[in-house]
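Running this now, will post back.
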Amino acid sequence: MLKFIYSTFFLMLLFGFTESHAQGYLKVEHLTSSELKDELGNCYGSGDMQVISGGYTLPVSVKRFDNGQFRSLSAGISASFAKMKNEGKALEMNPDDLINANLSLSYLLPLSRKWSMMAVLGAGVYSSASEITSKSILANGGAVFIIKLNENVDLGFGAGVTNSYGTPIAMPMLYFSWHPKWKMKFQIDLTNSLKVGASTELGKLRLELVGIEMDGMSAVRNIDGRSKIYSMVMLKSCFRPSYRINSHFGIFLEAGGNWIRGISVTDRSLKAFFNTFTEENNDPYFKTSFRMSGGFEFKF
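Update: finished.
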């Protein structure tokens, strides 16, 4: 089941939904060292990780309609570089670094007062710095039909296609967004990740408590002469204060716990993918560590 979670989240990483206005961010984060163990209690050493990441979304074309809906074409770029310092067997089981970089186009088209369609097309490099080849380039595309259930809730279903497992495969996709407009805002996002949290604004200061958030990184690797997918999935909780300097710039800090940092290696084949639904496994995971980060956001 864990491998299925890793594989599913790897697909989620490929399908980022861009916004309708120009915005970007730059973030640096650090995960303290923790032990790498499996469910049987075997210890494989320990390791920490540092990550620098950034992204930018640019609306290419936006047309607003009288009913408040809009049609938009947006381009997005995102990149993350992770450096890991591992000891013991963890050094052999993990790459020294990871690079995830992706370019995407998103098209939002209103179909009626309640229905809209979001289409995504993109490609990126998912590898370690020393192993980048043509196989590291993964392409993806997909479409989701979204219904606005009420003012605060959007729900959508669709399908995405990716070559992450060699032969292109189609996977169901789910879009869910809940943003009630209260003084204390609660949010549940299931777009290109999973995030559940609450926030409030005090003038230019925004305080956010993230109850659970899932993120991760992946890489196409050559192991024993075979092309495989290395996946890392992390679950965290954090407190995130941010300050809006002006209408264009803001800074933020994050501090909290990284509850699990699981790793998995899967063959790039349809058989290996479908085996993730049924096979039992004992994939190792890094235990709880402290996670802290900081950065800035900008809008134009």
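The chain has a mean pLDDT of 86. More later if anyone needs it.
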